[in-house]
Amino acid sequence: MLKRLGLSALAVAFCASLSMAQQSNNYVPPGLDTENAPSFGWIDSASINCEILTAPTYPIGSPVQLWGKLKVGKNKQGVRCLCDKNGNPVQLRGMVSHGMQWAGVACLTESNIRALRNDWNTNVFRIAVYVDEEGGYAYNPTHRSRYIEDLVKWTAAQGMYLLIDWHVLSPGNPQSRVYRNRRDNGKDAAADFFTYCARRYQKQSHVLFELCNEPNGENYQNENFGGGKWAWAEQPRVTWDNHIKPYCEQMLKIIRKYDKDVVVVCGTPMYDQNPEQVIGKEPVDENGKVYENIMYAFHFYAATHNDGQHYETAVKAWDNDFMTRFQKGDKKTPCILKELPIFVTEWGTTDASGWANFRPDLSDRWLKIFDGDNDGKQVVSWCNWNFSAEGGSCAALNWNTGNMDIFDEKILTESGKYIFKKFHEKYHTVVKGSKQ
Ligand code: IDC
User: Fold this and answer.
1) From ligand 1's centre to the CA of 266, what distance in Å?
2) Is it the case that residue 60 has pLDDT exceeding 80?
3) Which residue has a Cα nearest atom 12 of ligand 1?
4) Are 27 and 20 in contact (CB under 8 A)?
C-alpha cells in the first residue's frame, strides 16, 4: 500500500475521497450528473459588477516592464510559443505556491514574493487555488480578496508575472458540480471566479489565467482500486472532447468579454499529461474561430514521467516515453512542442506523490528539452512545485517561513537548492534588453 501511495498525488487524493465515501452511506460522487457541459449557472452580481483594479506601474527593468503583456506568437521556426508584447519568445520560470489554504498561507507574504524576485531570480509565480479540498476556495471565498488580490499587488510591485490557477484536482472533472452550479448554493463557482478575476484584473498586464489544473478521470469510477489494477490510468473518463474543451470554451467566453487577449492556459487530459489529445481540436468561439493567446498545460514529476526507463515508483500504465513525445514525437504522436504552445505550469523534481525519489538528473533532462532542445525549438515556460515546506521532498523549503527579509540558503531542501541554482543559470533564451 505504501508503495502505491508513493506512486502519485493522484493516489493520495484518491484515498482521501475513498475514505469519505466509506464514512458516509449517503455519499454522492461529485460530478456524476454532469457528464457533459452544464449551461451557465448563477454568477454573483458582486463579481459581475466588481470594481476594475487600476493599472500598476512596474519597476523599470523588471520582467513585466520589459516584456509587457505576454501573448502567444511564433518563434523563427514558425512554432507557436509564449512571446513578449513585441512577439519575441520569452521564458517564464518560477515557483508554485502550495495550496493557498494550507502551507500557502504561511508562505504567501510580501517579503517572500520580493525574495522570489530578488534572491531567487524568478519572473513568475503560480498560485494554486484549490477549490473543494479542505478549507479550499469553495469554503473560503475571502481568499479571493485576501491572498489572490494581495498576490496581484505584490507581484506587480516586483514586476513579476502571476499565474492564477483554478486548482481542479479532486474531483477531476472541471464540469463537476463541485466547480459548476454547486449543490450547496447553485453558484457556478468557476464562471463566477473567472468573471471576477477577468473583470477586476483586466488592466494588470502581469496576470495570466489557468482554467483548470489537472483534469482527471473521476476517481470513484475506479472500481478496481485495491485490486491492483488502475483503471483510471487506462480509461480516463474525463476527456478533452466531452468535458475539458467545452469547459474551456465556456470560461474563455467569459474571460474574453473582459480581456480580449490575456494569455490563458487550458488543462489537458489525464492530469495534464496528454496535451497531444488537443492537437487539431483547440477551443473555438461561438463562430467556430480558434481562440488566440491560448496555451496548453503539461505537468511532469521527474521520477514518474520521463523516458519510460525510470519508473521505480511508477505503475505499468505510466511506462511510456514522455520525453520523446515532447522532443521529437514518436510513431503515434507528432512532436508536441512543434504542434502546440505548451506551458509547464507545474513540475516536481521527485515522483508524482511529491514525497520521494528526488531526481536531479531526470529534471535536468526535461529542462534541457524545455530550453529549446526539441524539434520545434520551442522554449517552454515552467513553474516548480512547490514553494513551501509541505508535501514532501519536492518542497523547496525546510520550514514554512512568514518572512524572508533576510534570505538564508539554510532554508532550502535538496530540491530547493537544485531549483534555486537553476533560476540563477543564465542558459535560457535572453530577450534583448532584458536583465533576465
Ligand atoms: C499535493 C500536495 C499535498 C496535498 C495534495 C492534495 O503536495 O500536500 O495533500 O496535493 O491532494 C499534483 C497536484 C498537486 C499535488 C502535487 C504533489 O497538482 O495538487 O499536491 N501533484 O502530489 N499533481 C501531481 C503531483
Assistant:
1) 19
2) yes
3) 9
4) yes
The residue whose C-alpha atom lies closest to atom 16 belonging to ligand 1 is 9
Residue 86 near residue 80, CB atoms below 8 Å: no
DSSP-assigned states of every residue in 124-161: EEEEEEESSSTT-GGG-THHIIIIIHHHHHHHHHHT-E
pTM beyond 0.85: yes
Do 167 and 138 form a contact (C-beta atoms < 8 A)?
no
Spatial separation of the C-alpha atoms in residues 35 and 279, rounded to whole Å: 22
133 pocket-lining for ligand 1 (C-beta < 6 Å): yes
Q: Which residues of 140-164 are buried (b: 16+ CB within 10 A; e: fewer)?
A: ebebbeebbeebbebbbbbbbbbbb
The CATH class of the 27-423 domain is alpha beta
In the chain, what are the domain boundaries? Answer: 27-423
Over residues 356-395, the pLDDT tens digits come to 899 999 999 999 999 999 999 999 999 999 999 999 999 9
Closest-CA residue, ligand 1 atom 3, reads: 391
309: CB partners within 8 A, 6+ apart: none
Contact 98, 388 (CB under 8 A): yes
Name, in order, each residue with C-beta under 8 angstroms of 288's C-beta and a sequence gap of 6 or more.
none
346 Cβ closer than 6 Å to some ligand 1 atom: yes
Please work out whether the CB of residue 391 comes within 6 Å of at least one atom of ligand 1: yes
Cell numbers representing residue 300 in the block: 511532469
